[in-house]
């Protein structure tokens, strides 16, 4: 199983390298939202600093959601998903490899970009470790939960809006905990509690969502 997982992970990585525009779109969206927001609310450092936790996390959430609509679409159109469903290998393991590759090239890049954009908003340097840890724990949850919606809507021609309606309510706990951790760090308070809850949610997401994604793909392929 580990050999199959690593081979599929390598395959998905090669495919993502061939489509750099799909990888760049969420990052460009993330950067543009944060860069334009000071123009709308004004250049006051204190105001931008106070709203930066919520702004960074909302922008990250929407950027991840933007990248998920086409997660399984190309595989659905070329028949690869049918082969996955008929394969003797566990479907949850296969979809976990695909989502992991997607997160490594989009979510992880977003985490690397976030500190630079956060400093543009006046976020103190002492808050950057909490920002990085919270995004490292939170973005995999966003990708895994979003993949459930992408699996259910992959057979629809215009499933982007339905995907957002299905998944955004599930993102609320991650948004609250991520923003809360960063807000606590900004106020000089410990953020360990929020980070531990994010770690628990990450463990639960990695454990259970591959089965939900596999079930959603089976439903979409059967239709």
UniProtKB/TrEMBL annotation:
Molecular-function GO terms, alphabetical: heme transmembrane transporter activity
The portions of this protein that span the membrane are: 21-42, 54-72, 93-118, 130-154, 161-183, 195-217
Write out the entry's keywords from A to Z. Answer: Cell inner membrane, Cell membrane, Cytochrome c-type biogenesis, Membrane, Transmembrane, Transmembrane helix, Transport
Could you tell me the membrane topology recorded for this protein? Multi-pass membrane protein
Q: Does the keyword Cytoplasm apply?
A: no
Gene Ontology biological process terms from the UniProt entry: cytochrome c biosynthetic process; cytochrome complex assembly
Superkingdom of origin: Bacteria
**InterPro entries under this entry?**
Cyt_c_biogenesis_CcmB, Cyt_c_CcmB_bac
Listed GO CC annotations: plasma membrane
Q: Which PANTHER family match?
A: CYTOCHROME C BIOGENESIS B-RELATED, HEME EXPORTER PROTEIN B
Task: Please give the function described in this protein's UniProt entry.
Answer: Required for the export of heme to the periplasm for the biogenesis of c-type cytochromes.
What name goes with this protein?
Answer: Heme exporter protein B
Source organism per entry reads: Pseudomonas marincola
